[in-house]
Amino acid sequence: MSRGIYHSLTERKQQGKKSFAVLVDPDKVNNTNMEHLIELAVASKVDYFFVGGSLVISNYLDECVQLIKKAAIFL
What we know:
The protein has helices spanning 5-14, 31-44, 61-71, and strands at 21-24, 48-51. The protein is mainly alpha-helical. Helix 2 (31-44) links the parallel strand 1 and strand 2 (48-51). The chain is globular, with a radius of gyration of 13 Å. It starts with a helix and ends with a helix.
């Protein structure tokens, strides 16, 4: 079982490793640009995706997370 993102971040910091995270605001993306964003993230070896925004008023949050999870096998 995963020990959580906080533990992962602090462990990497203690090891002197840098992390690369991408913040995705589900109110500002759609299927087309999410696919492009994920392709770029996979090519750039992103360590973490953070999903959220100030308000999150759209219904795209769940779909956004599912798209990222599908792509996670390539990360």
